[in-house]
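Because discrete structure vocabularies remain unfamiliar, we turn briefly to a single example record, giving the amino acid sequence and backbone structure tokens:
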Amino acid sequence: MKLCKISVFHKQLPLKDPYWLSGGRLKFETLDATFVKLETDAGLVGWGEGTPWGHTYVPAHGPGIRAGLETLAAALLGLDPRQLETVERAMDKTLPGHLYVKQPVDMACWDILGQATDLSISDLLGGRRSTGTPAASSVSSGKPDYMMGIIESYRERGYVAHSAKVGGSDTSADIERIRHIETNRKPGEIILYDVNRAWTRREASLVMNAVADLGVTFEQPGETLDDIAQIRSVTTSPISVDESLVTLQDATRIARDGLADVFGIKLNRVGGLTKARRMRDVAIAHGIQMFIMATGGSVMADIEAAHLAQSIPDEFIQACWSCQDMLSVDIAPGRGARCEAGFITVDDSPGLGVAPDESLLGDPIAVYAV
């Protein structure tokens, strides 16, 4: 089986409401998505999606995916997409770095492998839990009542996990946000306080020590792993690493040095499922729990993350972020796993288990073929 055609689609995915990153320092209103269709000479078709969270969140942007695919196309055509690590090495050799470019190709290859073997991606990843994964909301930064209003709206849809954005330069305001939300936390809810790298070391120490009695978990309280190591040494609150978890080397350092209690694995950031499953295994080997997430995107991106999440034992999985409910458009109406009663659950459909409605994507902006 060989790849014989690669089609690239571009789609804007507007958010239902404007979204403010931690501390209100960045505003997002639409996501720039790239969809990749891989076709084989055996008639199997795989789909992938790459949707960075805007252009200013981390070093990744929608136009970069499409430029990178142009660079990668010649190296991919003629390869067997079922040979995941052969494809991975070809991409890494042809375009070092730029992991966010490679993720949608990797996703489409897993989709094809699943169809070829009549197995879901989660089964290919080692086995699918019978239970779904708690779906996590993403709560835009703002005043305490505003943030609680967002959480309440998700509760009405059954959500039991929430990622609340904190991280302003006004540390007293962050302390107020956290205490207000904790006062109103429901029994059994999972709440992660996501700083998105916004704090200095001093600010992280002030806030985390001020609310240490609450036992809450903070995600990415500093810019770098060196920052987090220093923050770790002067605080006691559990820490999740997200933006600084990019490579397998990052994962092994975090595990070896005890920098964090939780991995926040974002598939677009780390380069796709092939690389993410190694991080999963490092986490399990070291007793580290996980949040699994797309960086952003449609039901397709959410389902890719849900497959990885559902391959993780119950005691190691915290939640799986659901971005699809934040969008005002749906590129696969009536298709794929959706958030139901607060959980995302993939079934045994072969491969990814969802494909977009091509009529909603429009014509491809690029086609590469042999």
